[in-house]
UniProtKB/TrEMBL annotation:
It comes from Daphnia sinensis. It comes from the Eukaryota. Belongs to the cytidine and deoxycytidylate deaminase family. This is Probable deoxycytidylate deaminase. Residues 56-192 form the CMP/dCMP-type deaminase domain. It catalyses: dCMP + H2O + H(+) = dUMP + NH4(+). GO terms for molecular function: dCMP deaminase activity; zinc ion binding. GO terms for biological process: nucleotide biosynthetic process. PANTHER family: DEOXYCYTIDYLATE DEAMINASE, DEOXYCYTIDYLATE DEAMINASE-RELATED. Pfam families: dCMP_cyt_deam_1. InterPro entries: APOBEC/CMP_deaminase_Zn-bd, CMP_dCMP_dom, Cytidine_deaminase-like, dCMP_deaminase-rel, Deoxycytidylate_deaminase_dom. One of its GO terms (cellular component) is cytoplasm. Its cofactor is Zn(2+). The lineage of its organism: Eukaryota, Metazoa, Ecdysozoa, Arthropoda, Crustacea.
Length: 217
């Protein structure tokens, strides 16, 4: 008998249980072979129940923010942002990068030059700004922003003016900078809430080589 190309042989055991039908060998029992994957995909009982380890909304939105950050060409700090509406629909994403039409090959990426015009700070559009500008809905009133880094004061102004009501951030690494203090002052005055993201999963991995397309068989 064959299951997904695996032949039952002397070295393997054909198992028929209430959970389904599978071929098992020592490697599979140890959980480190293809056969182990097939055991999971043939586990009929699991396939009839709702998955429990799906991504919850906050993890999903923060992951989208971090995935967006991977597009950034900033060699030092990559920031991503994801805006969602009150129906949990993504209405804008962005990452820090040079303005449209301004070559990121020509403009500087460094930050240490004593000449301000030769630093990135003069030119980079922040992730929050790009997410707001990229919005695909009429407005952002009542929306939530997921962002990798606590917003600077310039982004805080944009967030407030856009009508965003909640900021969920991952890192507070600039918490002692005046720009962060200014952001908090403005958020407090304008009634924009902010909270640090508390991940439920320590890792979210997309490993294209490890995807087991047989899982849905
Ligand atoms: O609210 C913010 C603050 C900063 N950024 C971007 C702007 C720059 O590209 C980097 C910061 O660079 P450092 O080398 O860490 O100073 O982050 C942002 O997108 N949003
Ligand atoms: Zn900013």
């Amino acid at each position: 008998m064959s299951t997904d190309g695996f032949e039952a042989s002397d070295e393997k055991t054909l198992n028929v249980t209430l959970n389904g039908l599978y071929i098992e060998d020592e490697e599979a029992k140890a959980g480190n072979s293809n056969q182990a994957k097939i055991i999971r995909s043939c586990n009929y009982r699991d396939l009839e129940k709702k998955r429990e380890d799906y991504l919850e909304w906050p993890e999903y939105f923060m992951a989208v923010a971090f995935l967006s950050a991977m597009r950034s060409k900033d060699p030092c700090t990559q920031v991503g942002a994801c805006i969602i509406d009150t129906n949990n629909r993504i209405v804008g994403v962005g990452y820090n990068g040079m303005p449209i039409g301004c070559s990121d090959e020509i403009l500087p990426w460094g930050k240490t030059s004593s000449k301000p015009l030769e630093t990135k700070y003069m030119y980079v559009c922040h992730a929050e700004m790009n997410a707001i500008m990229n919005k695909n809905s009429a407005d952002l009133k009542g929306c939530t922003l997921y962002v990798a880094l606590f917003p600077c004061n310039e982004c805080a102004k944009l967030i407030i003016q856009a009508g965003i009501k909640l900021v969920v951030y991952m890192s507070d690494k600039h918490k002692n900078k005046p720009s962060t203090e200014a952001s908090k002052l403005m958020f407090n005055m304008a009634g924009v809430k902010y909270q640090q993201f508390v991940p439920k999963k320590s890792k979210i991995v997309i490993d294209f080589e490890e995807i087991d397309w047989n899982m849905s068989v």
